[in-house]
UniProtKB/TrEMBL annotation:
Name of the protein in its database record: ribose-5-phosphate isomerase
GO MF annotation terms: ribose-5-phosphate isomerase activity
Catalytic activity reported: aldehydo-D-ribose 5-phosphate = D-ribulose 5-phosphate
PANTHER family: RIBOSE-5-PHOSPHATE ISOMERASE 2-RELATED, RIBOSE-5-PHOSPHATE ISOMERASE 3, CHLOROPLASTIC-RELATED
Protein source organism: Spirodela intermedia (Intermediate duckweed)
Length: 253
């Protein structure tokens, strides 16, 4: 299997950088334990996820640096003959490094690489949606990491759409809305695989309201194509940490 990589586009510094590096000194036990790099943790979780793959499956191929490790492992198993007849459906035209943040209910934010609409369509059609992350992606609430919650909007009238998006949070959560740019030194808007723009929403303390209700409100805004909050879609989340790999399963309702 041949996998092509491109570098992630710079979406600018988040307005709440203090949330990305919480001031929590490591315990003496944690400090003494051998540490793995974030890339090693991603690879560990990805290989655990590939153990769920069986010959003859149709796979939605996610984007991101962790998914790239899974693709490499699947390709290796195909070459070894341990897997066969795998059909892959890509969720984007490119592979970009972008993070997924997961809350305790297995709701997550995806699409920081700009492929959120296609990813949600593929994953919504899947019988099982497995998310692969390292432990740094676990958050108390959606939007609480300091990273963007992306919303894909049509280019026509994007200023009006962005204003209405920001208005949803007035009086509720501290929110800053930004149109994503192509690059730090390029003032042109970032364009998704579907020819749309992305409005990035940054929250100082995350989203505290009912996510289902908020999702409906966002999607009712004319000009919004989709948002990057994946609510109730993940079947399980595989988390790689210093103490090993943990599998979080969705609780039955």
């Amino acid at each position: 299997m041949r996998v092509c990589y491109t570098q992630a586009k710079d979406v600018g510094a988040p307005p709440f950088p203090h949330l990305l590096f919480p001031e929590k000194p490591p315990s003496s036990a944690a400090a003494a334990a051998p540490t793995m790099s974030q890339e090693e943790l991603k690879k560990k979780a990805a290989h655990q996820a590939v153990e769920l793959v069986e010959s003859g499956m149709v796979l939605g191929l996610g984007t991101g640096s962790t998914a790239a490790h899974a693709l490499d492992r699947i390709g290796e198993l195909l070459r070894q003959g341990k897997l066969r007849d795998i059909v892959g459906i890509p969720t984007s035209k490119k592979t970009e490094a972008h993070a997924a943040a997961v809350d305790p209910e297995l709701n997550l934010v995806k699409g920081r690489g700009g492929s959120l609409l296609r990813e949600k369509m593929i994953e919504g059609a899947s019988r099982r949606f497995v998310v692969i992350v390292d432990e740094t992606k676990l958050v108390e609430r959606i939007g609480g990491s300091g990273l963007a919650v992306p919303v894909e909007v049509v280019p026509f009238g994007w200023q009006l759409t962005m204003g209405r998006l920001k208005g949803l949070f007035e009086g509720y959560e501290a929110c800053e809305a930004r149109l994503r740019r192509a690059a730090a030194a390029d003032d042109r808007p970032f364009v998704t695989d579907n020819g749309n723009y992305v409005v990035d929403l940054y929250f100082e303390d995350g989203i505290r309201r009912d996510l289902h209700l908020l999702s409906d409100q966002i999607l009712r805004i004319t000009g919004v194509a989709e948002h990057g909050v994946f609510i109730g879609m993940a079947s399980s989340v595989i988390v790689a940490g210093r103490d090993g790999v943990t599998v979080m399963e969705r609780r039955p309702k």
